[in-house]
Every structure is written in C-alpha cells, then in structure tokens.
Amino acid sequence: MTAPLLDVRDLSVEFPLRRQRLQALDGISFALKAGEVLGFVGESGAGKSLTGAAIMGLLEPPGRITAGTIALQGRRIEDDAASVRGGEIGMIFQDPLTSLNPLRTVGDQLVETIQLHLGLSGAAAEARTIELLEEVGIDPERRSAFPHEFSGGMRQRIVIALALAPEPKLIIADEPTTALDVSIQAQVLALLRGLCKERGAAVILITHDMGVIAETTDRVAVLYAGRLVEEGPTADVIAAPRHPYTAGLMASTPNLDAVSVDTVLPQIPGSMPGLTALPSGCRFHPRCSDAMAECARIAPEFAGGVACHKFSDAGSVKGKGASNGG
Ligand code: SF4
Questions:
Q1: DSSP characters for 149-189?
Q2: Which residue's CA is the closest to the ligand 1 atom numbered 1?
C-alpha cells in the first residue's frame, strides 16, 4: 500500500492561559493521498482553520501542538513546518487582496516566488510566469499590473498561480471563495481542483459550505468543537450522513430542486460551544436530538469513519427508540 502524502495522527492543540488550558483540537487524525481533495467542514469554531494552521506551523501564540504527529511524504514536520511552508505546502487564504503585495506587480510577485523556490534564472522565471498566468486564465500581457487593477475573482486566480508556482505537493485553501461573488465561486473552485489534479497535488479545502464540499471534494472531514466527528468519501457522506451533526448540516443546506420560497430549512438548535465551556462527553450532546444518557458522560471514540455512540458497537445502530439489546 502506498504511503499517504499527508498523515496526521492524534493532533491536539492547546491554548494555555494563566488559569486554564483550552483544548482547541483534540486527537484529530486523517490521511490524504496525492491528487486527492479533502474538504474540512463545520461551523465557525469547529477547528477547521486551526487544523490548517497547525499543519502550516502558523498557530498564533500561545497556541501550540501538545500531541500527535504530522508527516508529509513520511517526513515529520510538526516541529519544522517552516521548511515546507510556501514550498512543498502552499496556502490560499480567503481574501486575495491581503494575500498579494499591493506595491508590486503580479508579474514581479510570481517571478520572485518562482526564482526563490525553483531556482530558475530571470528569463526562465518570466517564461514560467507567463505559463502560470495562462493556466489560471489571466492574460499574461497584464503581468505588469498591480493587484488593485484586477477584480476579486481574477486576484484569487493570481493567488492560485502564486500557490502553484513552487510546485507544491499540498495546497491548503481556507475559504478560498467566500469573499467572491457567487457567480465566480464555482469557476475558481473548478480551476483550483483541475490544476491540482493535473499536477498530482493534494488539496485541503476548508469551508462551511456543504454545497462547495459536494461540488469540489473527493473526501470530507466533518469537525465539531475541535474533534473529528465524521470522515469518508464525499458522495457516501452526503448520500447517507451518519453523525447527527453531519445530518444537521446537510438538512440545513438548501437544495434548489426541492425548496420553494416558503420552505423553512431545519436548523441545528443552539450554537458551537466556546473553548472555555466545552461540554463533557460528546461535545455535540447539548444540541443533539439523538443524545442518550452516556453521551453527556463518555466521549465517543472515532471508529469506522464516525465518532458517535449510536455507532459504537461495530455496525450496530443504537439510540432513542432503538433496541440496546437489553
Ligand atoms: Fe448525539 Fe450521542 Fe452521537 Fe454525540 S454521541 S452525536 S450526543 S448520539
């Protein structure tokens, strides 16, 4: 069996305060193959961006990794992310304007990145810049323009070109289309997915939008309050979500074929807990309509692609109204 491109095992992140240690990520594990697109989904505060920041070594102090390992092609990087950041691992952030240097032309920024990471001469870097701009659908004649001279969608295409310039093995894209008009979100996501597939680069796509997950990803990881609660092939998870939180996210996603202007979409009651008030046991239990007595006391293990007591006995489904065998 081929080794995964990225292998994250039992990753935990804490923010130690004077009187309390806030556990922001708790034992996150997942693996990613070359060329695969993995979506992280969950509400704000689920830990999606924090997981990406931990992989990139961009945790804001005093946040720190307290347990677990991160391996890129078998090489441990949890203490050495700076050596791969911007090279073997690229990052695409939400707002392209803040990702680009407003005082330098987009061509200069691409040439500099290519020279720095690929060691090409000036002429070769210029030629590669032209190729990259063509690949992301920007007229290379505009390489002497500044970022503010482009639309939001064009700027994010340039950011994608910059992220691809060092020929990364993995790209972490954190809400890459949230700041863009809905009409161009799909184009930009299709471009990112297509170019990464062509190059065999894996992508972690962070989003709160199940529609984006459905359209763009091969696998999906659902996070809730710093824990991974469900993970699997996107088509399977969307067709038959098992964790009650995933089911709630799916139910609250509009399906344009099935809703009318009068349709009231279901909501998950309550809100994501803060780090200072994480519930005991299953962190979702105060919001879960399937919660059982043990849910408030015992944290479910992640097994078979889901972390829920309903599925904790190999293959059996428990819950309110279901037999527990007694
Ligand atoms: Fe709901 Fe219990 Fe499953 Fe948590 S473990 S999601 S509270 S049924």
A1: GS-HHHHHHHHHHHHHTT--SEEEEESTTTTS-HHHHHHHH
A2: 291
* Separation between Cα atoms, residue 231 and residue 196, nearest integer Å: 22
241 close to ligand 1 (CB < 6 Angstrom): no
Residue 16, preceding bond cis, omega within 30 degrees? Answer: no
Of 221, 162, 153, whose CA–CA distance to 186 is shortest? Answer: 153
Give dist(CA 37, CA 30) in Å, integer. 13
For range 28-56, the mean pLDDT: 96
Nearest CA to ligand 1 atom 5: 308
Q: Which of 29, 26, 48 is nearest to 208 (CA)?
A: 48
Atom 8 of ligand 1, nearest CA residue: 291
- DSSP letter at 85 equals B
What are the tens digits of pLDDT across the range 83-97? 999 999 999 988 888
**Which atom of ligand 1 is the closest one to the Cα of 283?**
4
202, 207, 164: which is closest to 185 by C-alpha? 207
Q: What is the DSSP letter of 86?
A: T
**Which residues have C-beta within 8 Å of that of residue 275, sequence separation ≥ 6?**
15, 22, 23, 24, 45, 226
The 10s digit of each residue's pLDDT in 139-154 is 999 999 999 999 989 9
